[in-house]
Write a structure and sequence with these properties.
Number of helices: 10
Largest sheet: 6 strands, mixed
Helix content: 40-55%
Strand content: 15-25%
Distance between the termini: 43 Å
Shape: globular
Order of helices and strands: EEEHEEHEHHHEHEHEEHHH
């Protein structure tokens, strides 16, 4: 059996409460999750469910109050800045907004060269690597001399993906990476993620609120609600035949292009909500 690349066990994340003597806010309540090498685990839930907090905790950007996060067997729950920096070649991130995640004053070549330079890669090797990265994400070679504002949203996200790939990481945390894009661009970027994974074997923690997105890219899916994972399992199973009432509501709230099927979903969702209200 393949050992997990990322293993989260009984993770609790708390933030200080607002106001004098306020109780701390518990964003994650004993969450456990694992990701195997080359696997995509989709983490889905509405705003405030804790899904982004879990991704941030894996990146060292959220405080771990209890529990552990292990990467390749190493406990990374409380690394120092220097230790976390050393781990950045192994774990990278693609953020939601391609408009603000790139430095507007730097050319694409400078953006992609920066992590390579920090890692000690020589100038000539870095230039070769930049050309290779642009090719991997489907951008022309002359893109390296252009600024982010000269690209569309989908192209900017490709630049962000290329930056994440620069150091050949083993895990990429994808935090709503297509939610700022139109539907046709979303599909092309999602296919790019899949193509890169098939070619490189990178693993993804794919954070999103959209069941259709996780169905497209994920091997396994975990559903978060109020800081807890309420359902997890095979991607097709969870996104097509959900068992937990919250997952069922998410599924029925997702839009479909057929008006008749959309109306059926709305009716089914109303029935579920009525049944839950009657049971209280």
């Amino acid at each position: 059996m393949t050992a997990p690349l990322l293993e989260v066990t009984d993770l609790v994340v708390e933030y200080p409460g607002k106001g004098f003597r306020a109780e701390p806010f518990r964003a994650l309540k004993g969450v456990s999750l694992d990701i195997k090498p080359g696997e995509t685990v989709g983490l889905v839930g509405e705003s405030g469910s804790g899904k982004t907090t879990l991704g941030r905790a894996a990146l060292g950007l959220a405080p771990v109050t209890e529990g552990t996060i292990r990467f390749d067997g190493q406990d990374i729950s409380h690394l120092s800045r220097r230790e976390r920096r050393a781990l950045s070649s192994q774990i990278q991130v693609v953020f939601q907004d391609p408009y603000s995640s790139l430095n507007p004053s730097m050319t694409v070549e400078q953006i992609l060269t920066e992590p390579l330079t920090v890692a000690g890669v020589g100038s000539a090797e870095a230039k070769t690597r930049v050309r290779d990265l642009l090719d991997q994400v489907g951008l022309p070679a002359d893109a390296r001399s252009r600024l982010p504002r000269e690209f569309s949203g989908g192209q900017r996200q490709r630049v962000a993906i290329a930056r994440a790939l620069a150091l050949s990481p083993r895990l990429i945390v994808c935090d709503e990476p297509v939610s700022a894009l139109d539907l046709s661009t979303q599909a092309r970027v999602l296919d790019l993620f899949i193509e890169i994974q098939e070619r490189t074997g990178v693993a993804y923690l794919f954070v999103t609120h959209d069941l259709a997105v996780v169905r497209h890219v994920s091997h396994r899916v975990a559903v978060m609600y109020r800081g807890e994972i309420v359902e997890s399992g095979d991607g097709d199973q969870v996104t097509s035949r959900p068992q937990h009432p919250y997952t069922q509501r998410l599924f029925m709230a997702a839009p479909v292009p057929d008006p008749d099927k959309q109306e059926e979903r709305r009716a089914a969702r109303r029935a579920v909500l009525s049944a839950e209200a009657a049971a209280r």
